[in-house]
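Appendix C: a fully annotated inverse folding record. The material below is reproduced so that readers can follow the format used throughout the book. The structure is listed first as tokens, followed by the designed sequence.
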């Protein structure tokens, strides 16, 4: 792990929240059923998301805003975008910040090792850091 990642892991750990900061019943349930137990194991978490929402609804991308924009023509309300290694480098982190600042993003979940983006318009806009 490089110095940038180490520094941001410390910052992430200081700023992260727990389930008591989740105001959405849907997200509270999702966090307690899937994310809480598996947030340190991205591979298992992605697999559980695929089981829960369907493999066709899970889109895995690198931390690239251009890649995020290119997906917008195929993304549906049921799609979930998973961003791999958003804290890998300063550039990937800046790209991740662009993605979570995009107005098409409804809910973002920052788990340090991966980022999860929901674009479902039925959800209320929220940003979570666990």
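Designed amino acids, in order:
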């Amino acid at each position: 792990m490089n110095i940038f990642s180490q520094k941001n892991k410390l910052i992430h750990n200081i700023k992260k929240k727990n389930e008591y900061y989740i105001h959405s019943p849907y997200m509270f349930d999702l966090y307690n059923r899937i994310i809480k137990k598996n947030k340190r194991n991205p591979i298992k978490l992605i697999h559980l998301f695929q089981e829960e929402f369907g493999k066709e609804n899970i889109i895995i991308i690198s931390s690239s805003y251009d890649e995020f924009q290119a997906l917008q023509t195929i993304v549906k309300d049921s799609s979930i975008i998973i961003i791999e290694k958003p804290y890998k480098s300063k550039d990937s982190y800046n790209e991740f910040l662009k993605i979570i600042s995009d107005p098409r993003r409804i809910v973002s979940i920052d788990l340090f090792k991966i980022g999860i983006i929901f674009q479902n318009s039925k959800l209320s806009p929220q940003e979570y850091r666990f």
